[in-house]
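ingest -> validate -> predict -> emit
validate: passed (alphabet ok, no gaps, 331 aa)
predict: started
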Amino acid sequence: MKLDIDDLRFILALQQVDSLAALARAENVTPPAITKRLNQLEARLGLRLALRTPRRLQLTHEGHLLARQATDVIDRMQAIENALQERSQVIAGKLKVQAPFGFGRRYLAPLLARFHDEHPNVEVQLFLSDSLLPPPAAHGRDAFDVVISIGELPDIRWVSHPIAPNRRLLCAAPAYLARAPKLETPQDLAQHACLVLRENDEDVTLWRFADRQAARAGSRPMKASTKSSSTRDATPHTLRVHPALESNDGDVIHQWCAAGKGVMIRSEWDVAESVAAGKLVALLPNYRLPDADVVALVPAAHVDSARTRRFIDLLRRSFLPQPPWRARLGN
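emit:
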């Protein structure tokens, strides 16, 4: 045999980076070690798999062909492994989860610790990211089993599992409101200091509201659909805000808001405790922002994994029918 499973994983890893140096950093080895491994693989196959310079790497046609075939083989092996674990009734292997920073720290970290207590043979990995988008596709042991997404879903072909309803709220501190102009309609925000969170490539200074009277669906139980219907038929109020302060970190925006620096839009899961304690005030009660429901995304190759299914079940038990932030707000 000229190829083994490690060779297939190696070519898939090469496909996901743009230089040998980047792969060396990811594998925690030296660049010469990566170069040597690639040279040895090419020598065994008698093919050039990648064109490389000190700063750039590009797979050849043969390299892309091998990567495509490797994807099928590794996904099939993963399915076989999952099937065997299912027969043995022992939940084992690796559970690799990605989640946004704030939500991951507050909710996913303790749940994964609990999951490990219940299934000690599972190796649990939690990767936190400031991106709400799923990572590039990976396969086999390098793939994420579950990606937690909040808000509008990207156009991807992953299986989605609704986990929890989550509204977006417009908030400010009492100290700010005591000195600020009136705020009765979304248009009044033009006179206010707005705090903006920079996330992904979203148009974060375009704020959209809807009349609450036309958006009564928000209190209904969460349905299997991943798109919120609560604002579908509501009268829109769209405005462009000019931020007084902005950051790419939600915790920073929350701190600024609590310190009285202005108004912000944040997820219910993040501000419910502060609103319940009176540290923040939810504003514009007659208007509603687009919901940002919490969804677990699972690659198709991992749908049949017993450990993935058990973790999704734990998420649903923990957040449905009422997530902890709704309990704090008493609704």
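Residues 15 and 84 are 29 Å apart (CA to CA).
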